[in-house]
Design brief:
By secondary structure, the protein is an alpha/beta fold. It has helices spanning 25-34, 51-64, 81-94, 114-126, 147-152, 169-178, 191-201, 216-225, 230-245, and strands spanning 7-16, 21-23, 39-44, 69-71, 100-102, 130-133, 158-161, 182-185, 206-207. The protein has a single domain, classed as Metal-dependent hydrolases (TIM Barrel, Alpha-Beta Barrel), CATH 3.20.20.140. Strand 6 (130-133), helix 5 and strand 7 (158-161) form a beta-alpha-beta unit. Helix 6 packs parallel to helix 7 and helix 7 (191-201) packs across helix 8 (216-225). The two termini are 13 Å apart. The structure holds zinc ion. Residues 10, 12, 211 line the site of zinc ion.
Length: 251
């Protein structure tokens, strides 16, 4: 029987002035080892001083641990347009990152704004998914605001980070129900709602995420306690993220 791969689709490295979080490489790698995570998709925090530098750090880590660490580009889209475009293109083309983050809350950007359209044009042209923060940070972080982009960019997979979290999980359900290119990452969701999303939307469109190493045991415990079938577990804990982000995981 092939090994079941476990993927953390959403975690961070570095410092965050916005949310007061600091995650070191050692912390990140230790939590992966402790909880048997085969690979993680790692992104900068929204409140990083110079995102280019942390992108370099993530790329260096990915080079040190090939197939175990994958980068996700995150930079404030309100920055100078040329700087943003150049850096996102560098991340995807040169550093081989697997997607772009739109941090609605941390970067104060609405998914229906002109700058969000710039992000989606880039994602379409570079052929990578966009992960969008949903949940805390309303109105920009309402899952429903992602629907217009899902409709306009049918070839771009959209991952709703936190699936709307506790309060807006029903909106995330509606968005994913209506658009097949919307996927759900479940960090900070209630366990029974994760179970509901997996049943209603399907395990091939729901994926595990921790967001931060200290939250890893909490999220693992949720998945351990909602009575997933073997196939639901295989998909949601790993294979869905592998498929959506086209990960070349080291087995
Ligand atoms: Zn996050």
């Amino acid at each position: 029987m092939p090994k079941m791969l476990k993927i953390d689709a959403h975690t961070h490295l570095g410092n965050c002035k916005t949310f007061g979080v600091r995650i070191s490489e050692d912390e990140l790698l230790k939590s992966m080892d402790d909880y048997h995570i085969d690979a993680s998709i790692v992104q900068p925090h929204p409140g990083e001083d110079i995102p280019e530098n942390i992108h370099d750090d993530i790329a260096a880590l990915a080079e040190k641990y090939p197939g175990r660490i994958f980068g996700l580009a995150s930079m404030n889209p309100h920055f100078d347009r040329k700087r943003y475009t150049k850096e996102i293109e560098r991340c995807i083309r040169s550093l081989h990152f697997v997607g772009i983050k739109l941090h609605t809350f941390g970067h104060a950007i609405s998914p229906i704004s002109e700058r969000a359209t710039m992000v989606f044009d880039l994602a379409r042209d570079l052929n990578v998914p966009v992960m969008i923060h949903t949940g805390p940070g309303v109105p920009f972080s309402l899952p429903s605001l992602c629907i217009t982009k899902a409709s306009k960019y049918p070839t771009v997979p959209i991952i709703l980070a936190h699936s709307g979290a506790i309060t807006y999980v029903s909106e995330a359900y509606v968005a994913a129900h209506e658009y097949q290119n919307i996927f759900l990452e479940t960090s900070w969701c209630a366990a029974h709602r994760i179970q509901w999303l997996i049943t209603e939307i399907g395990p091939d469109r729901v994926m595990f995420g921790s967001d931060i190493p200290s939250n890893m045991p909490v999220e693992i415990t949720k998945y351990d306690t909602i009575n997933l079938t073997a196939e639901e577990s295989r998909l949601t804990r790993g294979k869905t993220a592998i498929n959506v982000f086209n990960l070349k995981v080291k087995v």
